[in-house]
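During the second year of the project, the team shifted from modelling isolated chains to modelling whole assemblies. The rationale, set out in the original proposal, was that interfaces cannot be judged from single-chain predictions alone. As a representative example for this report, we include one of the complexes processed in the last quarter. Its constituent sequences, exactly as entered into the pipeline, are reproduced here:
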Amino acid sequence: MKYAQLIRLLVNRELTLRYKRSVIGIGWTLLNPVLTSAVLWYVFSFVFASRLPSGQQFAPYLMAGILLNTFFNQGLMQSADSIASNGGVLTKIYVPPQIFAISSALAGLTNFFIGLFPLAIVCYISGQPLAWTLPLVLVVGIALALLTAGLGLALSIMFIRFDDTRNIVNVLLMILMYLTPIFYPVSVMNSTMQTIIHWNPLTSYLDIFRWAFSNNATPTLFSWVYMSIWSIFALLLGTFVFRKYWPRTVAML
Amino acid sequence: MPVIDVKNVNVTYRVLMNKSSSLKELFRDAVKGKTRVIDYVALQDVSFTVDKGEVVAILGRNGAGKSTLLKVLAGVLPPTQGVSKVNGKIAPMIELGAGFHPEMTGAENVLFYSALMGRDVKRVKARTAAIGEWAGVSDHMDFPLRTFSSGMVARLAFATATDEQAEVLLVDEVLSVGDADFQAKSKARMHELINSGAAVVLVTHDMRAVLELATKAVWLENGHVKMIGNPTEVVAAYESM
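Output from the structure prediction step:
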């Protein structure tokens, strides 16, 4: 592909820039999920740990949720932002703008994969064996990258046109986070909430990820189908919205 | 076949009156029936061609549509109507250093900027040292760009942009960067590029440069072509306005 080199440079830039001025640099990518998980683990293990099905450990359950949620949240915001923040380039040099959104999603994916190492260590410490289905994590990662890039592309147009979209999306993402079983088991919720959580697409991604990595959840066929549908839908939506509105939006940059 | 062929190009910006820049305002205005869309015509029925080896200067006052035209030529802004065809590799020398990042090193920026312009990263990597040397910033290439002076940034951008020969040069007032020494050097390189047979579109307010370099001049006013032809005549008419 003609733009593969550019995408690689962009992903690299995004991964290194965030922590460029810090002493441990990219080490934060490893440390961030660990610290967040440690805090939440300390707070919630008293409440929720006993509610998990037997054979499932709370620490890896929690950390898997945090990794996946960080990937989605940061990836989405960054890919939605990427086109506006590279407006200076995009109005002078022709590059397909989609490349910036895709690179942001790929940077999120890379961070996610890096985070799997501390997760494996947490699994080991808490006595939760890794599952033989581990390679399937790759599938979940790519599916989530597609979801992120697709939604990010559609949102990028909104971000350029309306200043307040960012705040609205932030609120929505927070609601979505609480509707995803990140730090609680679904069983603690009442049946209405369970239905809502069930239809939250992120739940499917998360269930499959936990199961594939360390057999820490029980996804169904529905999860797989639902995940695929959302990834494909997001990609089509993003492509369509972007193609349709970009020519008019580029004039605003 | 001309290298650049612009035919009946129109560009219309759609502007929301009372400019609701937030969803909240847009919603409020839409409910009250107050949204009004007006079309701002930036370019109207613009046609011209540029052949290999030709240097076309675009003249016009601020807001005449020069920048919009360059965006159309660069392929960044699709025309609302008409076609703009450019055959060949474009070196857009419009606001040099777009895409430079202050936290990345000089060398990284050279690489990134070149990749944006569609150049082969491997080949550029081998050229990085030479580019830095030509720009006179050799001993800074491994430091973040924010430690560069603005003159150094401009020189590095110019050196990178002009490092490879392109078939099409889009130039927006970049003939004068850096100190007197570097200006002479960059001017010489510009002439070299222009005379090497590229098709050049030059936007400038510097009439001396137009007379010196251009083989054809296009005078834009309020989005349409007011006059096109021999630079001497067009400049004379433009200046007598």
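Chain A touches chain B at residues 2, 5-6, 9, 13, 17, 20-21, 86, 88-95, 158, 161-165, 168, 247-248, 250-251 (CB under 8 Å). Residues 28 and 159 of chain A are 28 Å apart (CA to CA).
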